[in-house]
Structure formats: C-alpha cells, structure tokens
Amino acid sequence: MDAAAPTSPTATETLALQVNGQRHVRAVPPGTSVLDFLREQLGLTGSKRGCDLGECGCCAVLVDGRPMLSCLLPAADMVEAEITTIEGIGCGNALHPLQQAMIDHGAIQCGYCTPAMVLNGVALFAADPHPDERALQTAIAATTCRCTGYNAIRNAFRAVAAGGEAG
Length: 167
Known about the structure:
Shape: elongated
Oligomer: single chain
C-alpha cells in the first residue's frame, strides 16, 4: 500500500511594487507578469490582456515614465521601478487632457485599447508637449485598435499636441 505523497504548498515569492504612487506588497507565484500582478493582485483592470505576446500593445503601462508591455514584464524585475497604470494618471477626479481629448473626439469605441493608447500618449507628451506628426503616429501605432480606424484617435492626439495641454 502506497502512502500518499505529501502535497507541497504552491511556491510564492513576496514582491513589493510601487504602483501609481503606492507601495504594494503581495505574495505571488514565481514568474508572475506585471499584467497579472496588476489585474489579479491589485484589481487594476485598466491594462488589458490581449495577445500575451507583446504584439497588440493593449497591456501597456508606464515604467519610470516609459511605455512597456506588462504582459512581457516579470513583476520580480520591477521592484525598483515606478509603475503607472491608466488608473494612476489624471489629477484626482479630473481626467488627463488626453483622456478628455479622446472623449471629445469620439476616439473611444469598445475601449479595449484606450488605456494603453492614452498611456503611450502621456509618455509622448511628457517628453515633448508639441510632438510632430511622425512622433504622434509612432505613439498611436504602438497599440492595435480594431474599432476606430485611428482617425479619431489621431485627432485627439493632434488636439493635445496643438494645445500643449498634456499635464
């Protein structure tokens, strides 16, 4: 008669990540991505799971102000970084100017790509409040949108670039 092998508890590692200006300590399985940490541990669902291959861009977050694909980032590699999600931009209840421009220009349809699209724009406008058309196109192209055809999104980005109101 074989004795049942003891079951081992699921291995975890404790991570402390700085997200949207707050430190969060969680025990997570090894290999947890930033996307999974945000969505499953913190309940921040603005970053979307798209392709899990780093191709669609819908999972983008800002890491130290630079757009990064959270589905490809090991959370354990981010312990010294500041992660900003769509939930962390704007000021209190006021929308970031690009969020408002996206609304004003009808650039939101299903909304799946919108958080990543906005974060790419936030990074762009932080680096250059008046980027040229090529820079705007590059920022927009980093995220796949399957609904809008991009015209309204381009118009929203152009409006912020023209006004220089990127917060």
